[in-house]
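Input chain follows. Return structure tokens only.
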Amino acid sequence: MAVHAGQEGTAKVGANTIAELRGWQFTQTAETTDTSTIGTTARTHILTVTTWEGSFTTNWDETDSTGQGAMTIGASVTLNMYPEGAAGGDTFFSGTATITGIDRNADNDGVVNATYSFTGSGALTEATV
């Protein structure tokens, strides 16, 4: 069984690495519809559509024009998320997504952070580098 530390991961907008990345997450879900009929004692269903969504958290870097700067509200971008790094043979997830939210915060004793939320448009694929 392979186990990976979070620090191995990275993420990109297209081919451009997102600068100052602190973490990312995404969730995949499948919707179903009930196909049970009268007299059935156990529900049955069929798959209808799948969805995926998530977010990136960064130390805000206004000079990162091709990573953070490309993730503007409403932008359609290709996201590539690498949980174990981006070397040959590593697994990654890729898909087109719409940036749906940006949250920035600053604390007196911390750095300015930015969180970019996204919703997938189409399928999320799993591949190897």
